Amino acid sequence: MGERVLTGDRPTGKLHLGHYVGSLRNRVRLQEEGYDCYILIADVQALTTHWDRQEELSRHVREVTLDYLAVGIDPERTTICIQSMIPEIHELTMYLSMLASVHQLFHNPTLKSEAQQLGINFALEGKKGRLELNYGFLGYPVSQAADITIFKAKLVPVGRDQVPHIEFCRKLVRKFNRLYGGGEEILIEPIAMVGGAEGEPSPLERWYWSYRPPSLDLSLEGFLARYTDLSLAEAAGLFSDEASPADSEAGFEKLAQGVAKLLAEHPTESNLPAESLVQWAKDELIRLREIGAQDTKGVLKGITGDEKMSKSLGNVINLADDYDEIWAVIRQGVTDPGRIHPTDPGRPDVCRVYAWHQVFNPEGEPTVRHQCVHGLRGCVACKKELAARVDEILAPIRERRHQWEKRMDEVDEILIEGTRRARQVAKQTISEVREAMKINYFSPARVAAD
Ligand code: SF4
C-alpha cells in the first residue's frame, strides 16, 4: 500500500462538476495508483456554516457517498468515514487548539476570503456581517489539522487556495512534536499535493493544436523535429519560470516561424491574415506562458462567468444531472463578447465555454480553438458540442449512482465499515498523543476494569 492520502468534503448537498474536476477524478486516480486513500465526510465542519440545517445532514452524507461510489471510489480500497463518528478527531482538535494562536487564524487568507464569500463578519469588533463569526468557523483550520494528523496522512491533495491550511497544519505539527515528542515524530507533517488535474494540455500543446490544421496528423514532437531545431524538452522549457527572456524570445521566434512554414505548406481555410501570422503565433505563445504561470489547475470556474459554481448563482451541474439540466446551464455560458457573427475570428482564451472544452473535451479542444480563432464555428454549436461531451462523461456516473440508490442499505454499511476502520487508526494515534502529552494517568487495563 502506498502513502496515506487524506481528502474530504463538507456534506452540504450533491457533488457537482467542480468537485469532479477539482478533486474526485484525482481521488480515483490516486486509488488506482495504489495510495492508501481516506475520504472524510466532514459533517462537523459543515455545521460551522450550516449549524441550523442539521436535519439535512443525514441526507447530504448519503448524497456525497453516492457521488463517491458513482465516480468510481471503491470502498474496498478507499476508506470512507464520517467525522462526527470519530471522537478522537475532536479530542485531538482540542489539544491542537492550545497550540494555535487566534492571531494566526485571523490572518489566514483562505479563512478570510471564505468568510467574505459567506457574508461572515470576520472581526471581533466593527460593523456586523450578514452572519456573526462563530468559534467553530474560526477554528476549523485546527479541526482540519486534526482530521489530517489523526490518520497520519502524509499527502493532502488541495487546490491552491487551501495551501495556507496545510501550512498551518504543518506548523502545528512541528510545534506539537517539538513540545511533546522528545525527538520523536508523534504527528506527521503533511504535504500539500497542489493541483492534480490530469490530462490538461501544456501551454505548448495548446498553442500547437490551435495552429495545426486539424486534418494534419502530425504530433507536436514531429512538428518540432521537422519545422524547428528544438527538442520537446527545449520547447517546453521556454514556458518555465527559469527560461531567460532572451531564450524565450529566440525560442518563440523559432516556433512561430515553424508554424508559419507548416501552414504555408498546408494552406487551410482560415480567416487569419497570412502576413501577420508569425507575430500572431508569437503573441499567442507569450500570452499562454502568462496563463500557465497563473496555475489554474484543478479549478473549474463557473461557465456563466462567475469564479465558482454555486446553487445560488444557478450555474451548478450536479454529477446526477441529465442532459436537459446540463444544457440549461451550458446554454448560459459566457463567450467572447467581441464576437458578433460566427465568421468573426474569436478569442477562445476570454471564453468560458472554451475553458470548459479544455477540461471536458481535450480531444476536440484543438479543433474548437482552431475553428474559433479562424471564425469557422458558431457559439451555439460550440455550446451544444460541449453539453454533449459533458453528458457523455456524466452518463456512466449517473447510471452507477442510480444503481447504488437502489442499495442504500449497502451504502450505509460502507459508511459504518469505513468509519470503523478509520477509528482504529484514530484510536492508535490518540493513544500515542496522550502518552506524549503525559495525560495517560492510568493503564488502559485498569481504566477498563474500573
Ligand atoms: S466559438 Fe466557442 S470558443 Fe469561440 S467564442 Fe464561441 S463559444 Fe467560445
What this model shows, in words?
The chain has 450 residues and is mostly helical. The chain folds into 3 domains: 4-198 and 407-449, 3-Layer(aba) Sandwich (Rossmann fold); 201-296; 301-406, Tyrosyl-Transfer RNA Synthetase, CATH 1.10.240.10. Helices cover 56% and strands 6% of the residues. A 3-stranded parallel beta sheet has the order 1-2-3. Strands 4-5 form a two-stranded parallel sheet. Bound molecules: iron/sulfur cluster.
Kindly give the count of domains: 3
Q: Order of strands across the widest beta sheet? A: 1-2-3
CATH homologous superfamily name of the largest domain? HUPs
- CATH top level of the largest domain is Alpha Beta
Mean pLDDT: 85
Spatial extent as radius of gyration: 25 Å
The largest sheet is:
3 strands, parallel
Q: What percent of the residues sit in helical stretches (DSSP H or I)? A: 55-70%
Gap from first CA to last CA? 39 Å
According to CATH, what is the topology of the largest domain? Rossmann fold
* Proper CATH architecture of the largest domain: 3-Layer(aba) Sandwich
The SS-based structural class is: mainly alpha
Query: Low-confidence parts lasting 5 or more residues at pLDDT below 50?
Result: 196-200, 293-297
Approximately how much beta-strand content do the residues carry? 5-15%
Q: Which small molecules are bound?
A: iron/sulfur cluster
**Discrete helix count:** 20
Q: Based on CA inertia axes, which overall geometry fits?
A: globular
Helix and strand succession? EHEHHEHHHEEHHEHEHHHHHHHHHHH
